[in-house]
Amino acid sequence: MYKEIVIRKNIEQHMRELREWLNETADMELEEMGDFFTRRIGDYEEHMAVWSRAYQRFAQLLPADTKSILDLGCGTGLELDEIWKRNPEISVVGVDLCQSMLEKLKEKHSDKKLQVVCEDYFQYDFGIEQWEAVISFESFHHFLPKQKKVLYDKIYQSLKKGGLFILGDYIACCEEEERLLQEIYFQKRKKSGIPEERFVHFDIPLTLEHELTILQEAGFLNIRQIESMDGATMIVVEK
User: Fold this and answer.
1) Which superfamily is assigned to 11-238 in CATH?
2) Which of the two ends of the chain, N or C, has the fewest CB atoms closer than 10 A to its terminal CB?
3) Do 215 and 134 form a contact (C-beta atoms < 8 A)?
4) What's the whole-model pTM score?
5) Which tens digit of pLDDT belongs to each residue from 34-83?
């Protein structure tokens, strides 16, 4: 079991502000995932600074004796900045679609044990029983449940026995938020005629209940810790 947490302190206010934002951006077309982040590389880290406390807490969830990790959707490595502060010797494979972000990551941490892979992590081979830990921060909320199930199956198979999957992500505060964002997502895709196989940048978070259900379906049963900080919900599950 896990402790009860508050995803949003004021759901009514959050939903009102979300609807206002969706109305304001109704005419904005969807952007492909890699293109979206390439265009914003200049102010990306400043934009993500809202989660500075969450990055620190996320790093603390990784056992201190961990020797190697796989980071999915690593971007410029804001979570890795904190992880390497705690464990400078840890070896990392970082996977991301955006080459410019990976270049910045390598520039920041040229002295670290780092391998970067510019690839769609749905296609990347995670290996079998290879990793002590797989991590991801604010990346998976762009995918539908069936896509997440594919990812979680791959992650489960790639972890060693007793290995951890540590997820920090945008979680919907209620079923209304989950449903509303998926409706807008499908409307925008249909309007733009975007094929299903192309990844676009649009938030479609699941509720915590639905997120945990998919993790359990993938084989993860031991939920060790859950907490929410500044809109980032952190989940730790063990194989």
Assistant:
1) Vaccinia Virus protein VP39 (3.40.50.150)
2) N
3) no
4) 0.94
5) 888 888 888 888 888 889 999 999 999 999 999 999 999 999 999 999 99
Q: Locate tokens 């390598």: which residue?
A: 106
Can you read off the two tokens belonging to residue 6? Answer: 């508050």
